[in-house]
Write a structure and sequence with these properties.
By secondary structure, the chain is of the alpha/beta class. The protein has helices spanning 12-20, 34-43, 90-100, 118-127, 170-183, 202-213, 218-228, 266-279, 281-287, 330-336, 360-367, 372-377, 390-396; strands spanning 2-6, 25-30, 48-50, 63-66, 104-110, 130-138, 149-157, 195-196, 239-240, 250-253, 256-259, 309-310, 314-315, 378-380, 386-388. Strand 2 (25-30), helix 2 and strand 3 form a beta-alpha-beta unit. Helix 5 packs antiparallel against helix 7 (218-228).
């Protein structure tokens, strides 16, 4: 099968599809940002690489993936919905789907799309003869150490007798993925200790953090991709959705919207995580910070920086970390020299390069011999401060070791991975 990728970024959705169906080959990708373009060339050199999505007429393919910009629908964004300049690029994705008419489409966005654009996306798909199903799921459900709640939409030609793709077996698929990923990529940090800031220029570090914050966690999307490409189950009897507020999970056929059960509710994902922590105390001590059960999730936009925080003190980060919760962002924690809680990565992680750092807490950890977490997660400035290590953030997001290799003159990762 041939796949095409829109708003490709770090190829998170494409990795999910490739793992779900190894026979899939990336035929083309479309990405405008410089670092992700270099990454695509390095990781998938055979794929044709387009730049601007506007007016794009790509090669035919069987699958199209894309996470169109969330800037105007995120709770941390402009709240303009699909009328916004960035999130309005959905119209271009819709036009490409109409031109290519693939058998399957996989769309990703922040969970707030449910209230700021989902109904329009579904209506646009219906107008060109596509049915759709969607689920809202956290990265935590796939084994990540952060929540990162996202909505995934699967679209396909609206044909009589088409099966239900995101069926009741999806919960079991996530349960299996949780176990597999906790024993796999998230079993331990792949990062080697102390990286000096001089080894990785600020502009390179910031670009990598921005790209990672914008990325899709591959493991989070993989069970959805497997279901999308599977045989599915009979449509059966589905309940029509009533009311103005869109459900967190559902289906759309013939222009009618149906409500579906959420495959992995947040409470269930948290229960899986709590049970795992109890059963794996040694790994918990090695991977998670003392006194905390999870990291905040990386995200494309943070609430906080050193200039915007709770009572003017700490930044508040991540679309799942509300200002009222008082949870600092990853970049703020890095500037403070310690990461006692874990916000999700965001595209604004580059903020960590600005402002000064308070190092007292970090020094206390170093003096007590508890520096391994900080050393892996952060880059030492050499003068007492620390910034986020993009290799660690990429690991937190589920990307393979060395995924940034070949994207700059510093393509050996300067020992960031053992």
């Amino acid at each position: 099968m041939k796949a095409g990728s829109l708003f490709s970024g770090m190829l998170g959705l494409d990795l999910a599809v490739e793992r779900a169906a190894p026979v899939t080959a990336l035929s083309w990708a479309c990405e405008i940002e410089p670092l992700p373009r270099r990454l695509i060339r390095a990781r998938r050199p055979a794929a044709r690489l387009y730049g601007d999505v506007r007016g794009l007429r790509p090669l035919p393919c069987d699958i199209i993936t894309g996470g169109f910009p969330c800037t105007d629908v995120s709770v941390a964004g402009r709240q303009a919905g699909l009328a916004g300049e960035k999130s309005g690029l959905w119209r271009e994705m819709h036009a490409v789907i109409q031109r290519v008419r693939p058998r399957r489409v996989l769309i990703e966005n922040v969970r707030n799309l449910r209230t700021l654009g989902l109904r329009e996306v579904l209506a646009d798909l219906a107008r060109i003869g596509y049915a759709a199903e969607w689920q809202t799921v956290q990265a935590l459900a796939a084994g990540a150490y952060h929540k990162r709640s996202r909505i995934f939409i699967v679209a396909y030609p609206d044909e009589a007798g088409a099966p239900l793709l995101l069926g009741d077996g999806l919960r079991d698929d996530y349960a299996a993925a949780f176990t597999q990923n906790r024993a796999g990529i998230w079993r331990a940090f792949p990062c080697s200790p102390v990286i000096r800031s001089g080894d990785l220029p600020t502009d390179v570090r910031n670009a990598r953090l921005t790209a990672t914050g914008n990325a899709v966690c591959p493991q989070q999307a993989e069970p959805i991709a497997r279901a999308m490409l599977g045989a599915g189950e009979p449509w059966g009897s589905q309940a029509l959705h009533e009311g103005p507020e869109m459900p967190f999970a559902g289906a759309m056929r013939g222009g009618f919207i149906y409500v579906r059960p959420v495959a992995v509710p947040e409470s269930l994902a948290m229960a899986w995580h709590a049970a795992w922590c109890e059963a794996n105390p040694v790994t918990v001590r090695a991977v998670l910070p003392a006194g905390r059960s999870a990291y905040p999730t990386p995200s494309a936009s943070e609430y906080g920086s050193s200039q915007n925080g709770v009572n003017g003190v700490n930044g508040v980060g991540g679309e799942n970390e509300r200002p009222s919760a008082g949870t600092p962002s990853l970049s703020t924690m890095a500037r403070q020299g310690v990461l006692p809680t874990w916000p999700t990565p965001t595209a604004r992680l580059g903020d960590m390069a600005r402002g000064s750092s308070s190092v007292a807490t970090a020094q206390a950890r170093l003096d007590s011999g508890r520096s391994n977490l900080d050393d892996a997660m952060t880059v030492s400035t050499g003068v007492g401060g620390r910034f986020l290590n993009p290799a660690w953030v990429a690991w937190l997001m589920g990307f393979p070791a060395g995924w940034f290799d070949g994207t700059s003159d510093h393509d050996t990762q300067i020992g960031m991975f053992a």
